[in-house]
Specification:
globular, three-stranded antiparallel β-sheet, alpha+beta, Nucleoside Triphosphate Pyrophosphohydrolase, 3 helices
Length: 143
């Protein structure tokens, strides 16, 4: 019998403020700017996992609002569910996972964030009626 391919599910909640900026983290492990997110745990709901990851990485509690994108890393088999969120309490601060946490504008996202993560942030900023589904190779969005 052939083994079935294994997938991992990741969740991300991107807080967007009243000025349309996104709250992003600069990771401690690689120095890259990314939205807060990580692996969904087996015993939690999707929304609770996204909110947990946002809190762990930014220090703020969020309300998960809208699914803004589904992304699959074709190379690693990671499926990411990304949500727009709003801050309900707390102040952004560095955490054990994030060396810096900042509100970034659209132009700052484009300038600082790697392509596959920038697409997630821009999709959350735009929050359309139809949720985009995108595939990538870990570096570039695939057509």
């Amino acid at each position: 019998m052939t083994e079935l391919p294994q997938h991992s599910v990741s969740v991300t909640a991107i807080p967007i403020d009243d000025q349309g900026r996104a709250l992003l983290v600069q990771r401690r492990d690689n120095g890259r700017w990314e939205p807060p997110g990580g692996v969904l745990e087996l015993d939690e709901t999707i929304e609770a996992g996204a909110a947990r990851e946002a809190f762990e990485e930014t220090g703020v509690k969020v309300e998960v609002q809208q699914l803004t994108g589904i992304y699959k890393n074709l190379r690693l088999g990671v499926v990411a569910l990304v949500f727009r969120a709003k801050v309900v309490s707390g102040e952004p601060r560095p955490t054990p996972e994030a060396q810096d946490v900042q509100w970034l504008t659209r132009d700052e996202v484009i300038a600082r964030v790697p392509e596959v993560y920038a697409a997630r942030v821009l999709d959350a900023m735009d929050a359309r009626d139809r949720t985009p589904i995108r595939h990538h190779d870990g570096v570039h969005i695939q057509a």
